[in-house]
Please model this.
Amino acid sequence: MAKGILYALIITCCSAEIIYAQDFTIPDTISLQSGNLTLRALLWLPVGQGPFATVIFTLGSYSDSDTIHDPIKDASVLGPLFARKGYIYLALFRRGVGLSKYQGLNSADLMEKAFKQNGQERRNAVQLQQLETDQLQDMIAGLAYLIKDGMWICTGWRL
Model:
């Protein structure tokens, strides 16, 4: 009888751990609207009820010809670390990059083109214009997604 109770207790404890354990290496892939574009993001969620502090990491400025950096791998390095520490981590791929590669034009390629045609000053102007328009719109879309689901906090206040 004691042996049967011990087995039941072990099975119960192991089952509870399996139910509540989370594999932080596999994020959710989400889609969100930024104007008429559908952007993709990777989302890591911590264990527990929330609200949670949130990190939004926007991936952009990866050139189509970049063979050194992989934006999906880059995003996947930090996501699990933050989720294990109790943060929501949203890795948002801006237009033209990574999981959003076929959604709009990549800012790095736009800046490179401006540089080749008109030099550094025009490249800088394109970068500023992107930061104030398209890239800002993409970041706002990421924030809107999180706010809509009510899953995050900002400076200690639930939004």
